[in-house]
Design brief:
Bound molecules: ligand FO1
Distance between the termini: 17 Å
Oligomer: single chain
Helix content: 25-40%
Strand content: 15-25%
CATH class: Alpha Beta
Shape: globular
Number of helices: 13
Radius of gyration: 18 Å
CATH topology: Rossmann fold
Strand order of the largest sheet: 5-2-1-9-10-13-14
CATH superfamily: CofD-like domains
Amino acid sequence: MITVITGGTGSIKLVRGLDSVLDEKMTIITNVGDNIWLFGLYICPDIDTTLYGLSGQLDQKRGWGIYNDTFNWMTSVNKFSDNAWFQIGDKDLDTHRLRTKLFKDGMKLSEITKLMSNRMNIKHHIIPASNHAIETTITTNDRQMHLQEFWVKNKGNLPIKDVTYKGIEIAEPADNITNVIKNSDKIIIAPGNPISSIGPTIAITKLKKSLKESNARKIALSPIIRNKPISGPAGKMMRAKGYSVSNIGVAKFYSDFIDELIIDSSDIKYMDKITKMGIKVHQTQILMKNSLNEIELAKYILSDN
Ligand code: FO1
């Protein structure tokens, strides 16, 4: 049984690769830290990227939203709302509308995700990390803000003093996540931003405990090549949390539960240092520029090397 812990717009590339290669169903645990209420809608970007990615609807260039979407509704929103910095596509809108309705009707986020996944004919299990609200919050010089306000409204151009996960103290893993983790053969940490895409999930106390206790091979993919994040604000965030922006920093961040780390072939110089931390290191080409790369990396992870 394969379980993947995902978040951010890069994870879906690996998930797609695994989907092409695997005959069996996998479980995909998605980040909920960047969920946000805007325009009266409950928006869950990482769940939707997974849903759209696995049902062939994703705008692959942007990494979020639906391809060939239009943004006419946003023009009306601009008249009334201060939050028009967050772009909702016209087709994408219906996902948020339905989720919000079902949520207000009393359904849990995991139930809503299952329903949507079934309607999109996705064979895998997509489970939000928690049904509790967890909010990734960025502390800049003068105040705290939601991750989306930092990343989308301010384009990540503010200094980061701290990153916290609001609500994490009381958050429980959704559904049967702890059992899935215990019974998995392999648990793959997708190449997402360790702090904002994977961090909120593994900070859930009971989820982390089950990761530590699981006998699965726990394999993380580095999101960093030659000391630079493949995409997004991982560098700034890792520095703010006291981790170096390198594979050493990634290894340290995951060191209390992973067995293995896959790094890019160009970073081979870090191998010894990471091995000394008790983590087995693999090196291969980790940058996924096209579907062939996605499939090759998925095959590499699934092989027993
Ligand atoms: N990212 C942007 O940079 N600008 C946007 O206007 C934007 C809108 C948006 C709407 C729906 C959705 O599911 C994702 C959206 N994203 C947008 C992506 C999102 O901000 C982040 O990349 C993810 O939260 C990272 O996981």
